[in-house]
Amino acid sequence: MKRNKITVVGAGNVGGTTAQRLAEKELGDVVLLDIYPEIAKGKALDLTESGPVYGYDGRIIGTDRYDDIRDSDIVVITSGLPRKPGMSRDELLSTNAGVVKSVTERAAKAAPNAILIVVSNPLDAMTYVAYKVSRFPKQRVIGMAGALDSARFRAFIAMELNVSVENIQAMVLGGHGDTMVPLIRHTAVAGIPVTELIPKDRLELIIQKTRDGGAEIVKLLKTGSAFYAPSAAVAETVESIVKDKKKITPCAAFCEGEYGFRGLFLGVPVKLGSGGIDEIIEIKLTSEEAACLKKSADAVSELCRAVDRMI
What we know:
Elements: E1 5-9, H1 13-24, E2 29-33, H2 37-54, E3 60-63, E4 74-77, H3 93-110, E5 115-118, H4 123-134, E6 141-143, H5 146-161, E7 168-169, E8 172-173, E9 181-182, E10 188-189, E11 192-193, H6 200-211, H7 213-221, H8 228-242, E12 247-256, E13 262-273, E14 276-280, H9 287-310
Helix pairs in contact: 1-2, 1-8, 3-4, 4-9, 5-6, 5-8, 6-7
């Protein structure tokens, strides 16, 4: 049986750890591509030498040549500058738009049938760049954000209640950043509504901690940004696609009327399968939830308009 070919563009902390998780899950052969070939080759070799210990057999190569990613089934884009302490995701817009544009152009040419998964920040705007530049169908361009934000939210709830993270079900919509929208009505602990277990004031603090999750890590690390949780969220997304699991996950998807929005990428629940996004799942929102999502969409739309002027 032919193995899937998965390319990870960018061999930094996010890209390198993503390659590790994909290899350990045996989701396919992995190509780690970076403008610095020695780093990509070194990490690929290290991962290859881990195989006998961890028990995975996939082929892992490092390269700076786009010819090596030819016919990839999935291309994960992690390229770009990471955030520094005190820097917002949006401040990365100009620099990373140019990086993602260049990467997408070359990746789309080498792997025209691939599914693109964008991780670079600011996430929603960079996914929009990849969509515009690649001219791929909207189903094959996905922004990894909601899975990460939802994981952070679940982790903080589990910590608050001292229960297993496996007991927590949660969904975070909207743009990746300060305007993300946690759906409290759909957040539960082993089926019990979270509002019955955590007082409103504590829940508000947890929501804010979720919004600040990435910034807090940037502040603590000082020289980089989060990579363990983002790479785990990417691996979950890739797994649902490779295994055609039809898993419903919040991702940045191109909206064409869903939730009342058109022409932008926004975090919404989607069903992920072998073709990418099978469908956007529309759920009824309260007036408050809808207002928060609109505020988030307005912020994303502003970034997308800026991107249109750049590319």
